[in-house]
Specification:
single chain; 287 residues; alpha/beta; Spore Coat Polysaccharide Biosynthesis Protein SpsA, Chain A; 9 helices; 20% strand
Length: 287
C-alpha cells in the first residue's frame, strides 16, 4: 500500500500547470494490480487555484486513485514542513514523495517500487533521477550515491522526489523544518550515517522539472551560511569544522570559477552575526 505525497504551492501562478503534469505521470502507470494507492496534496499556496483543481479532480487515472487535499497555512515557504504535514496525513505503510514540478519517467515506475518494497522491505528507497524542461525530454541522469559532504550541500542523490520512505520511519525522522534549502541533504546524511535499511533502483527515474523562478534560485549566500551553521550545531558527530578544508578542495575542483557558497566561519561570535545580517540586508555576500 502506497501514499504518494505531493507538497504543493502556487509556483508564481504555474502551480496547477505543473501539478497536472505531475499527476498525469502517475495516471499513466501500469501493472499496479489491486495495490491500494492514494495521493496526498499538502498545499502551501497563497491562492486557491490548487484547492479548486483538487476539488475538480478527486481521483486520478483509470484506476481512480483517490486524491486527498490538505491546505497548509503554517511555515509558508518551508517545503520541509509542507512535506512533513503531507506525510502525517498519509494512511499507508510507505510514502512516495513527488514534488509537483517533477514527474515519474517510466510507466512501470510505481510497479517497480512496489516490487522492491514487497521483497526487501527497506526503510528508505532511492531511485534514479533525470531533468526536464518540458516533461517530455530528459537529460542529465543521476545515480544516487552517498558522499561525506551532504551537510555542506553536496547533493549526489537529487531531489526528495527520488525517495520512497516507510511512513513510520519518516514520522520518527522528519525533514528538518529549520531548513529551506538543505533539508534534503540533511535527511540523506542521517540515512547514510545510520543503520537505515536502504534499497536502490537507479534503473527507474523521476525527472526534476527545471523552470525559471524555482525556490533554490532565490537562496542567498547568507541563507546558505545559516543553514550550514545550523547543521554544524545539529550534527556535532559530523565534525564539519575538520571536514571543511577537504570540502573546499572538492568544491574548487568541481567549480573552479564559482565563489564558495557559504561563510567558512561555522562558529561566529555575536558581532560577526550582526555584521553578516547587515550585509545580507544590503544584498552583499557574507565574507
Amino acid at each position: 500500500m502506497l501514499s504518494i505525497v505531493i507538497p504543493t504551492y502556487d509556483m508564481h501562478g504555474q502551480g496547477t500547470f505543473f501539478l497536472e503534469r505531475c499527476v498525469q505521470s502517475i495516471a499513466k502507470q501500469i501493472h499496479l494490480g489491486t495495490i491500494a494507492l492514494e495521493i496526498i496534496l499538502a498545499d502551501q499556496s497563497k491562492d486557491c487555484a490548487i484547492q479548486g483543481w483538487a476539488h475538480q479532480n478527486q481521483s486520478i487515472g483509470s484506476t481512480k486513485i483517490p486524491l486527498h487535499y490538505h491546505r497548509v497555512q503554517t511555515k509558508l515557504g518551508f517545503a520541509a514542513h509542507n512535506l512533513n504535514v503531507g506525510i502525517s496525513h498519509a494512511r499507508y505503510a510507505y510514502c512516495k514523495i513527488l514534488f509537483q514540478d517533477d514527474v515519474l519517467v517510466e510507466d512501470n515506475y510505481l510497479a517497480r517500487i512496489l516490487e522492491i518494497l514487497s521483497t526487501e522491505a527497506p526503510q528508505c528507497l532511492f531511485t534514479g533521477a533525470l531533468h526536464t524542461t518540458n516533461g517530455v525530454d530528459f537529460t542529465d541522469p543521476i545515480v544516487p550515491t552517498a558522499n561525506p559532504y551532504f551537510l555542506f550541500g553536496m547533493n549526489t542523490v537529487s531531489s526528495p522526489s527520488v525517495l520512497t520512505i516507510a511512513r513510520a520511519f519518516a514520522l520518527e525522522h522528519p525533514f528538518d523544518e529549520h531548513l529551506k534549502m538543505l533539508f534534503d541533504c540533511a535527511f540523506y546524511y542521517a540515512v547514510f550515517a545510520s543503520k537505515t535499511r536502504v534499497a536502490f533502483a537507479p534503473e527507474i527515474h523521476i525527472a526534476n522539472g527545471i523552470w525559471q523562478g524555482q525556490a533554490q534560485h532565490a537562496i542567498s549566500p547568507w541563507q546558505f551560511t545559516k543553514e550550514v551553521r545550523h547543521l554544524h550545531r545539529s550534527y556535532p558527530q559530523a565534525a564539519l569544522s575538520a571536514l571543511l578544508p577537504a570540502y573546499q578542495a572538492v568544491f574548487t575542483a568541481r567549480h573552479p570559477n564559482a565563489p564558495f557558497p557559504f561563510s567558512q566561519d561555522l562558529e561566529p561570535n555575536f558581532l560577526t552575526r550582526i555584521r553578516e545580517w547587515w550585509m545580507e540586508r544590503l544584498g552583499r555576500k557574507p565574507s
